[in-house]
Design goal:
It contains nine helices and no strands. With 236 residues, the protein is mainly α. The longest helix has 46 residues, at 186-231.
Length: 236
């Protein structure tokens, strides 16, 4: 169980599970295809058994249930494989990303269940290899990529803290509201609030990345290096 504002962390379980099985299942094209098809069958089976109208129950089995979400990990894997032989290029990748956003906009925010959301997933997977190829050497994009997951995990906590009863939060909140009122126009004031809260969330994510994530990553890498070096016999 996660605290109220960290429930978004459930994705760690799905991602770590995939990372654990990836070295074994991605070596074989047949196994990868079989897992893609089996996951799709599980997902469509859930759609047949659980009505979409039962929102919470449907989301639990179609979104949180790893066998039903594995197919999206496999889509990314096959998009990478196909891109090695048929690269889309930067322009086509941007078009695919725009289509992914358009199809996502068409679909109601329940889960990934209707045709537009599946089309969005396919377009997004197709766009990733080309976008990665043109951004992988950019320091700015690498930095933004580094803080993406901390931002994903901490943004709800940051917003909740901002609107909490803590004294420092009250002062900061009053300053932001005063800044919004200063512009006079509601549209500009609203845009200012959104930009300020987004900037605050990004700052918290950056601090989390440098103060927690990077040191933890180095610690784990050091532990794994020592653990493996102790078990590899020295050359005779």
């Amino acid at each position: 169980m996660f605290p109220e504002y960290l429930r978004i962390g459930w994705t760690l379980g799905a991602e770590l599970t995939f990372y654990l099985i990836a070295p074994w299942v991605l070596r074989s094209g047949r196994i990868a295809i079989a897992l893609l098809l089996m996951s799709a069958m599980v997902r469509f089976g859930v759609a047949l058994v659980v009505p979409i109208e039962a929102n919470r129950l449907y989301v639990t089995w179609s979104f949180y249930f790893f066998p039903a979400t594995l197919m999206f990990f496999m889509l990314g894997h096959f998009a990478n494989i196909i891109a090695r032989s048929l690269p889309l290029g930067a322009t086509a990748s941007i078009v695919a990303l725009a289509l992914a956003a358009f199809f996502s906009w068409l679909d109601p925010p329940i889960s990934v269940d209707r045709l537009p959301s599946y089309l969005s997933s396919l377009c997004f997977a197709a766009a990733l290899p080309g976008l990665f190829a043109v951004t992988k050497d950019s320091r700015i994009f690498n930095f933004l990529g580094d803080i993406t997951y901390p931002l994903f995990l901490t943004h709800t906590l940051t917003v909740a803290a901002l609107f909490s009863s803590w004294e420092f939060a009250k002062q900061l909140r009053q300053s932001l509201f005063a800044g919004a009122v200063y512009f006079g126009l509601p549209a500009i004031g609203g845009a200012f609030l959104i930009a300020a809260i987004l900037g605050l969330a990004i700052a918290v994510a950056a601090v989390t990345h440098f103060a927690i994530e990077r040191p933890a990553r180095k610690l784990v890498a050091m532990f794994l290096f020592r653990w493996t070096s102790d078990r590899i016999p020295a050359p005779a």
